[in-house]
């Protein structure tokens, strides 16, 4: 929309109009010109010429905007089409792989089933008869009895192994009122504590007629034999401690006592 107006100060006519603003896309850009005349008729003619010029300019700017929008719209359609195409492509590819994988598993399961059936046909499962079951039970019982016998034999062998070689050197019986006996024996010095305890228990069983028993075990060497004979006057305390291997006592009141390092009791027995 354009117009002309006359300034009262100088009497000349001026032209003003609004054209398309490329920044906002609206006709909000105001321009004006001096028409250089004081004649209104001439001013109207110039207005018509200027209207045509700016109308053509607005039209060209509108066409350029349309072309830009058209190009943007075109590229948007191409981009959206490409996105849809690749989405469908990868979706179909994924579904195809999944279908192939499922088919592969199905084929593998089918082959495994066929192999199992073929194997069962070649190697049928035999159901044992009642006679075979009875024989199997008897065989199991015989096996258990054999194993028990083997365990007993192993236990006996262990007892023989645990029992050290010994020799009773001297026994000393106390008055009948105490019903006590002392046993002095020698054994090999290389023996375990369990072996010495086992020997003491065995000797106690051999003297069941006594209610109280004291057993002293010494090393089977010259000093140990002399100590068992109570001839230890010339033997040093160090050698006495070294050769006195164990002491065992038992009585109905205090029960059993065993010491595999009885050096503290030197001089008491």
What distance separates the N and C termini? 142 Å
Integer count of domains: 3
Low-confidence stretches: none
Which structural category do the helix and sheet elements fall into?
A: alpha+beta
Main beta sheet: strand number and arrangement? 5 strands, mixed
Order of neighbouring strands in the sheet with most strands: 4-5-6-7-8
* Radius of gyration, taken over Cα atoms and rounded to an integer in Å: 62 Å
Average predicted confidence as pLDDT: 78
Beta-strand content bin: 15-25%
Order of helices and strands: EEEHHEEHEHHEE
**Tally the helices: what do you get?**
5
The share of residues in helices is 40-55%
Per the principal axes of the C-alpha atoms, what is the gross shape? rod-shaped
Number of strands: 8
Give a short summary of the structure.
The chain is an alpha+beta fold. Helices cover 54% and strands 20% of the residues.
